[in-house]
Amino acid sequence: MNLLFCFHPFLEPKLNKWKQNAITVAAGNEKGQELNQLNYPNGIFIDKNKNIFIADHTNHRIVEWKRNAKEGQIIAGGNKEGNRMDQLYFPSDVIVDEQDHSIIIADSDNRRIIQWLNQKQHILIDNIDCFGLAMDKHGFLYVSDSVKNEVRRWKMGEYDNEGIIVAGGNRNGNQLNQLNYPGFIFVDDDQSVYISDQNNHRVMKWRKDAQEGKIVAGRNGKGGNLNQLSLPHRVIVDHLDQIYVVDWGNHRIMRWCEGKEEGEIVIDGNGFENQSNQLNYPMGLSCDDEGNLYVADWGNHRIEKLEIIL
């Protein structure tokens, strides 16, 4: 599931803080294709056992990094780039269907959503310029299309149709009913869809069946002020409706409360180098059931764990 109930219910939102010195939990051995390396990791997914599933973008593979492991395990792709069933081509996102333990992948440059189960592959959706994936508790799969500037939804197992547009679909633009290169997505309990509207430097929230969205982060153009974002990537939302945004161009993680004019910095990149308190163009974001944050530190080819301060 893409629903994140990962923050302590008895804590006031403002008290949730994380240690600024991160722990590297996957790779961090420069970029490469060995099992202890990554090459520009994109989307990540944390399962209930705290195993990390990584869209290892430029290695054209999905890697599972078990908790406390020194190296990862290739569970999809890894056969160079290509469009055979056993190959991937710049995968951008990955989620795990914990009902059947299958891996669902946005195989971006092959323009397909592909499912891997026990090393067997099945194309779910074809001819789609996919970027981000999400799944809700009702059994729907959501996919962002960065070229059609829309998000579509399919009932799990029913992919023989075009799906339903749930956000965008009105060409690219910056109006409330438009998107401009939608990336990662998140779906809450009410089936509201949160979208990193990358080229508009904002995060949009589209309620179920809405004709237009609402800006919930950003809205003041590209920049590094507290009321701005720069090419936002992964967005996740906690059960208190606080919105966490990977602010890619500013090398930081932001937290926004819906309705507020500006956000606050959760994790600062501190100069985008590779020290434990630095991020270098972060991309993916997830969390575990204890509230620890995990960041795909794209430019440093590693996954960082930020421990919550209780």
Automatic annotation (TrEMBL):
Q: Which UniProt keywords apply?
A: Repeat
What CDD domains does this protein map onto?
A: NHL
The family database entries (Gene3D superfamilies) matched by this protein are listed as: TolB, C-terminal domain (2.120.10.30)
Per-repeat ranges for NHL: 278-303
> What is an example of a GO molecular function annotated in this UniProt entry?
zinc ion binding
Signal peptide (UniProt feature, chain positions): none
- TM stretches of this protein: none
A Pfam short name: NHL
Q: What is this protein called?
A: Uncharacterized protein
What organism does the UniProt record list as the source? Adineta steineri
What is the phylogenetic placement of the source species in the record? Eukaryota, Metazoa, Spiralia, Gnathifera, Rotifera
